[in-house]
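Need tokens for this chain, all 596 residues.
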Amino acid sequence: MNELAARLRSCAAAKDLQQGRRIHRLVREHRLEGDLFLGNLLLHLYARCGASDDAKALFDVMPDRNLVSWNIFAAAFAARGCEIVWKVFDRSPGWSVVSINTVLGSWARSGSSGRTEEAKALFDRAPERCILSWNSLLLGYNHRGLIQNALALLDRMPQFDVVSWTDALAALAQSWDLSGARALFDRMPEKNSVSWNAIVTAYVENGNFPLAQCAFGLMPRWDPASFNALLSGFARFGNLEEAKVLFDRMELRSVISWTCMITASTVSSSLIFARELFTRMPGWNVISWNAMITANAQKGHLDEAVSLFKSLPEEDKSLCSWNAMIAAHLHSGCFDGSKAVFDAMPARDVSSWNNLAAGIAEHKPVTAARACFDRMPAWDVIAWNILLSATAEAGDLGEARNIFHAMPAKNSFSWNAILTASALNGHAQDAENLFGRLPDKSSSVAWNALVSSYARNGQGTVALRNFHQMVLHGIPSDGVTFTNVLVACSHLGMAETSWRYFASMVSDHNVRAERGHFACMVDILARLGRLGEAEELARYMPFLPNYVVWKSVSSASRMYCDVDRGTRAAQNAIDLEPKHSGSYLLLANMYKSNSC
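Here are the structure tokens for all 596 residues:
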């Protein structure tokens, strides 16, 4: 029997299922099936090899079982979902810290939204806990987006290991507390590659790519996950050339690496290169197919995305594939097509519902988005953000605030959405109060909303002061930033200052001047009576002037009694939009102004 036991341990260590089954036959031939010790070793072998059906067949005929048997049996089903493990646990005549860790670990890894309260209750009533118990509950909270629960648990943890520190880091990063994440990272007594990769990923996910590159450069050693973390940042921000350099340095490239490169190509508007990468891949799986479906959809090639989806064998179509098709139709503005895909799905997850809700929010009234939200079986922070944005864009600031306060967890998008809504509704002080409460202020979206709230509320001086604070804090400016700055200058009547800001866009901030910026400058010059400069800029700007531009010149010309110039501007507006009644009203007003 000792020899059989030794051979079973060896097979379990090597995960040699076939040899283990042969030894099981020997156990039966020697009539040793009733031996509890050998029975548990066989259960352990099947659990290690992932052979849960063999484990169940053996468990059902075992004449004797102890707590070890039940724990091994539960572990055998851990990979098949937490519901099965919960059922085994409920049948068990007793439980230990091993039993609790098995159930919590299975629940944590499953990522499903159910059983959260049961998991917490199980943890709370456990007579003893080890570091694995704490880590499992922490990981479960992180996977479900329950960041406040995770942070509260951190305060209670009696000890940490490298897994605890890394999960804590992930919780802080997901809560948009990058400064807290960095402080925790600096405090870690031991850092492994997972920890380093977590801080790089945290910076990437929160949009602070320069710090992600800095952290990557400081890593003592790199593994494939390190390269993939930084590569995902290049992909997210469309830095295709830098992504190519990093990709060429990689000795080992996984499907994730290739997929990141395809994504970077798509963001950089290089669909041809994305297709080339796809054909060069040493092997395709459902992830690479999904990446190409998404790439074609984002560039408006819906037919090719549909063709790729149909090329996938039915058994290989994952939830991600179906979700990619919903997103593909939405990218192409085909809401009915996305709804048809949703209805045809064999199963749905939170992402499926979120995609549908996003489509409804974009194409239907906010009441329809609310109805979809109420139908969803589970809500994550993305679902809450979709409802928040839809309500805010509908102009219902009061209800948007109610939704924001009801959210169990918030991320940067949530804060930026309510901050922007307050700014657009003219609530400058509310916007500033929200900005002061932001967990992390490194987002240009948040700063833009703050500048906009004062610029559009007639408080140009405060708006410009906030813009300079934004620059001093090292927050990168964008086109939206300078639109708000020029609006503030317009309210203050600062023509020369406006020109300086306009000129600094490219020279100091590397921001390309768009049509809207030129339109702002025309409007500022026209309002201040510098009509000749306004008309000249309108005629020679590197964009075709639109109705709004000529309306600004015509309205200002009437105010300053320059009838000829105003008539020309009004006629230009009519030529651009002959069906717009406002154009003719402009011309009529100019004729009335002949008495100037």
